[in-house]
């Protein structure tokens, strides 16, 4: 896929590759942010500018040393070999982190949170990491308010995420925060990944994959998305799936990781945000289009989810200027703004 050249105003993201880095997760930031039509500039560095070994059978050479961290608007720390995830920083890593300017947005993936925590940057703050590492993390960093049951946590200038695919989720969330859902959805399509998995959605912990021959709720979920304007109930969904209420609820949670009601609310909010960004419909009209009974209900749900009212969200992200979102960050979506 040919990438669009970066824009003059591109936000610089520096990825810090540490010893034992996981190759897949190392590439997430470049793949996701690099698909945002030139809105981001990506640099990858190591603590000394030399090649770094991965947890696989090869090394990775980079073009930049730690001095690149001084120029970053956002720093991404991918995960690395668990055996190296201790409660202390080596001198080279500590020296590299010291080059990051105050106020720079920090994003960690999986064991990357161990680096932020060891630097004292997560003390007293909410954070997450891979659920398998939760107890180990708590023992090392008791001052961190760890929540191992979510995909990612946005605490303003520091964002932490769980393992592997949640790194994609948090990068898309950053794009959505910076540029709105339309841009994030476009990037998700290019990367062939779901455009939105709520940060509070549970990590998929030991959820069995349904057998190919098993009856699933996939068709009913699509039907619900096509009929969001209707006052859908659990009875309606179970009836469409031709299952009992109990069977449907159990199977739905097993496949999606949350209840039908919570999932439905998230889909309605996602659609409402898209309409706020891309249409001139009134808040009352949007509420009706997405299945909230009143505009008040939409306001309450949107405020609970991201801390802003519909009109404030529209002022931030409404698509103008040739169809591009003009906003940078929505209040309450974390203070992760373009710097």
UniProtKB/TrEMBL annotation:
KW Transmembrane helix (keyword) present:
no
Per its UniProt record, what InterPro entries does this chain match? Answer: Class_I_gatase-like, DJ-1/PfpI, Homeodomain-like_sf, HTH_AraC, INH-QAR
Originating species: Streptomyces auratus AGR0001
Q: Which PANTHER family match?
A: ARAC-FAMILY TRANSCRIPTIONAL REGULATOR (PTHR43130), HTH-TYPE TRANSCRIPTIONAL REGULATOR RV1931C (PTHR43130:SF3)
Please give the Pfam families that the UniProt record associates with this protein.
DJ-1_PfpI, HTH_18
Which GO-annotated molecular functions does the record name?
DNA-binding transcription factor activity; sequence-specific DNA binding
Keyword vocabulary terms for this entry? Transcription, Transcription regulation
CDD domains linked: GATase1_AraC_1
Q: What is this protein called?
A: AraC family transcriptional regulator
């Amino acid at each position: 896929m040919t990438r669009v050249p970066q824009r003059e105003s591109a936000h610089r993201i520096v990825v810090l590759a540490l010893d034992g880095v996981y190759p897949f997760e190392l590439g997430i930031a470049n793949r996701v942010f690099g698909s945002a039509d030139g809105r981001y500039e990506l640099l990858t560095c190591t603590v000394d500018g030399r090649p770094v070994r991965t947890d696989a059978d090869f090394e990775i050479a980079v073009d930049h040393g730690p001095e690149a961290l001084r120029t970053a608007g956002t720093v991404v720390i991918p995960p690395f070999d668990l055996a190296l995830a201790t409660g202390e920083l080596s001198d080279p890593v500590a020296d590299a982190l010291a080059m990051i300017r105050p106020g720079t947005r920090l994003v960690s993936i999986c064991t990357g949170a161990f680096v932020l925590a060891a630097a004292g940057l997560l003390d007293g703050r909410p954070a997450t990491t891979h659920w398998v590492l939760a107890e180990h993390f708590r023992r090392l960093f008791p001052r961190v308010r760890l929540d191992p049951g979510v995909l990612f946590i946005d605490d303003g200038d520091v964002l932490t995420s769980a393992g592997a695919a949640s790194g994609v989720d948090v990068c898309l969330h950053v794009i959505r925060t910076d540029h709105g859902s339309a841009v994030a959805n476009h990037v998700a399509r290019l990367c062939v990944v779901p455009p939105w998995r709520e940060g509070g959605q549970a990590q998929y912990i030991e959820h069995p994959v349904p057998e190919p021959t098993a009856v699933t709720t996939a068709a009913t979920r699509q039907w619900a998305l096509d009929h969001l304007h209707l006052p859908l109930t659990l009875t309606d969904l179970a009836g469409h799936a031709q299952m009992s209420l109990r069977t449907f609820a159990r199977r739905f949670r097993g496949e999606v990781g949350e209840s039908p009601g919570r999932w439905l609310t998230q889909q309605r909010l996602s659609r409402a945000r898209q309409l706020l960004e891309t249409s001139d419909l009134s808040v009352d009209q949007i509420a009706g289009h997405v299945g909230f009974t009143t505009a008040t209900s939409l306001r309450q749900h949107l405020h609970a989810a991201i801390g802003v009212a519909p009109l404030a969200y529209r002022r931030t992200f409404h698509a103008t200027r040739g169809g591009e979102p003009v906003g940078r960050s929505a209040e309450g979506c974390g203070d992760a703004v373009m710097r």
